[in-house]
Amino acid sequence: MTITVLTLRLQPQVLANLRAYPWGAMFPGLAVLGIAGTRMYISKSNESRSFLASSAYLFGMMTSAAFGVYPYVLPASRGTQHGLTLFDAAAAPYGLRVGLIWWTIGMALVSVYFVFVYHRFGGKVKEGAE
Fold it and tell me: Which of 31, 53, 70, 77 could form a disulfide with 60 if both were Cys (CB 3.0 to 4.6 A apart)?
């Protein structure tokens, strides 16, 4: 609770974004539900649901932070005119297109490698196996 109060005091952009876009409150709500679910499922020894709940918490926290400071990548502490926005930090359109093409190729290669490694080395290790 203290961190939330300090965030709203030090970063007025967060409250402004929440007022302008009320649907953005779902991100912190997801974080709260995720942390509550993690605690509940840990106490019930349900590892898979606890993992999913903790993933929801992390996703909620990351999206809350991104939503809160949008459009700033690096908010300034001395007035919004000094902050670095997404539009100021973006590369030229040509560079973004080239980057997207190479990112797509790279992610396809990583996916193929991941599937290969998973099938090659997947499964549980048996005790005493060498």
Answer: 31
